[in-house]
Specification:
Strand order of the largest sheet: 2-1-5-7-6
CATH architecture: 3-Layer(aba) Sandwich
């Protein structure tokens, strides 16, 4: 019971710190060329962090990451392979990104964040990793993969594999996914289709994914000896 109370206290403290971090992030205005209104998935205390690239034009309106077509594809992947629907995913995985604000549009599509903008936002990701101490990080897309692997390999050399890396003083596994945007057909044709499924299978089997919210640890279990010992009646029951 003492261990249970200590764990509950640590988790409550972590959640409080995470909530304060997310609140500060939502008021960030470091990058003048970004469209203000940082997007966050909320203070989900999880052992798994998903790192996207940057919000699209729809995400600030919805107030959550992956809220449009790319999100539908992403959550279908996890539903099909890991048996986790969108609401469960959002409730059990911490959703971060390389940049938290919509970069704006160019003639070619969404603007790619600048090096300075990525650096400005990197301290948020470092703080999240330091606080959550994840067992697994899932970078989605080349820009996200580049925050953990340099030089950035071809997608066929990184998708479907697990690597171990270190950031913010924490060591964790990474299993990358291609970006689910409809702009790229990579994940819909071979070898991308098979490699994406292999990556999702690796995620499903990872220990951190199986126990991503630590909730099971909060349920005190009776030992085998306790199970065999009849529950002692309290004084009131004995009097009756």
């Amino acid at each position: 019971m003492i261990c249970y109370l200590l764990l509950a206290s640590r988790m409550a403290s972590r959640y409080h710190s995470l909530s304060k971090l997310v609140e500060a992030l939502r008021h960030c205005d470091r990058c003048p060329q970004m469209h203000f209104s940082p997007v966050s998935g909320g203070p989900v205390s999880s052992r798994v962090i998903l790192v996207g690239q940057a919000p699209g034009v729809r995400e600030p309106e919805a107030g959550r990451p992956f809220a449009w077509t790319a999100g539908r594809t992403l959550f279908k992947w996890f539903s099909d392979v890991a048996g986790v629907d969108e609401s469960s995913f959002r409730a059990t995985v911490y959703m971060a990104a390389v940049c938290r604000c919509f970069p704006g549009k160019t003639a070619a599509g969404d603007r790619v964040p600048s090096r300075i903008e990525i650096e400005n936002c990197s301290s948020w990701l470092d703080a999240e990793i330091a606080l959550l101490t994840p067992g697994l990080v899932i970078p989605v897309g080349k820009l996200a993969i580049a925050q953990f692997i340099q030089p950035v390999p071809a997608l066929s050399e990184v998708i479907g594999q697990m690597r171990t890396t270190e950031r913010a003083g924490k060591r964790f596994d990474i299993i990358a996914l291609p970006h689910p945007s409809g702009a790229s057909p990579w994940h819909r044709i071979e070898p991308g289709k098979s490699l994406t499924r292999r990556a999702l299978e690796l995620i499903r089997q990872h220990p951190a994914w199986k126990n991503r919210t630590r909730l099971k640890q909060l349920t005190p279990r009776r030992t085998e000896e306790e199970k065999l010992t009849p529950r002692r009646k309290d004084a009131k029951e004995e009097e009756e």
